[in-house]
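Researcher: Go.
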Amino acid sequence: MIFCWLLVAIIRDPGAGTLKGLCPYLPPHLSYWALIRMLRSGKWDAQAVMNGMADKVLRALPPAADGTPAGTIVRHQRVASHRRG
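Model: Structure:
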């Protein structure tokens, strides 16, 4: 639960994103020290959490109009090249 509130605070914070700067965006019962303890505990895998969240978001999105599968990055080729000289 603390991670979810931390994520919301990071999204809402227009500043530098320091933990103390994020505290105004958190519920009053969630203290600064609770954030510190969570981050320093090392008992959670940040990459696994973000991958799980990204997977759920991509599955919730509607399919693309051109039929491209969700989460696929389409790289466009350059149509014309510039010549110097």
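Model: The chain has a mean pLDDT of 76.
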